[in-house]
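Troubleshooting: if your tokenizer reports a length mismatch, compare your output against this known-good record of 345 residues.
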Amino acid sequence: MPPEPESGATHPDIGDVRIQDVVSIKEQTPLERVLSSQPFWVTVALALIIGIMVIRQPDSFGSAANFANMTRNFAIIGIMAIGMVAVIITGGIDLSVGSIMGVTGVVCGLLLEAGSTWYIAVIAGLLTGVLIGLINGLLIAYAGLSAFVVTLAMMSFARSIAIVLSQNRMIYDFGPHGQAFKDIGGGEFLELSNIFWALVVLSILVGIILKFSTWGRYLYSIGGNEQAARLTGVPVNRVKAQAYILSAVTAAISAILLVGWQGSAINSTGQAYELRVIASTVIGGANLMGGEGGVYGAVIGAALLEVIRNSLLMEGIDSNWQGAFVGVFIVLAVLLEKIRGQRRA
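Known-good structure output:
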């Protein structure tokens, strides 16, 4: 039993909550929400790095060719991060996205080599992603297996399938319809790659879905409290499985675009990309415990990592240091999220 209020007390206790604690809560203004947003500060960091590098290396880093190169490179990771953020919002993880890229690229390459049209290759690549995502989703959502274990196993399985299908060789003869397929990933519009424009379209589409659709609200509710979501009627298993399908499909899209740009398919495509994708989402504000994250944060996180990588190369720093810088930014992002969580509490 809570103690009775002393005589003359103006704010009685109700259970474990005091009235003054409730009435003192103030809703954040739009400016306060922006300033407390991790993607905002990542954007600031990105702008500062770009500004410094343009001043230091105006003819190399600041060139139009380098800008187009950076946007294409980060778009590959950004597209995958869009799917990954949906999984992380639910409190899950997908370690198989890099291997999905590998097997998808090989499937497309083999079909083109056999004389298939470009759209058959694209459809087959997308269906490969759907199939792998469905397997992941069923095992995680319906069989109740650990997302880490399932996707780690799929990472190994899919990479092995890519090696077997390709017979461990590079596929570069894309047949009579190869040029049309290459134009998908290698083409440009307004001097920016098709890969970048694909990222823009997907970002807008998935961003709207996460923010305004019932499905998006379901994702956040599952990540916030899965048991409570079940009790309120949220189809938890179905939504979680769909999140893994989305993650796999975005990996397949990245593979199709990357293979088209490179003009060849190899089974090692996407190797270790899962680490860069997860890092992008975490740096962009996604919480690995679930319930937080967004498309803009994932994309801007991918952009920051690419700008850091490019800046190190321009400064002549050993490329082996890239992983160290990425690791530091991941730790800083998690630390910032912890500080923000303490302030909210």
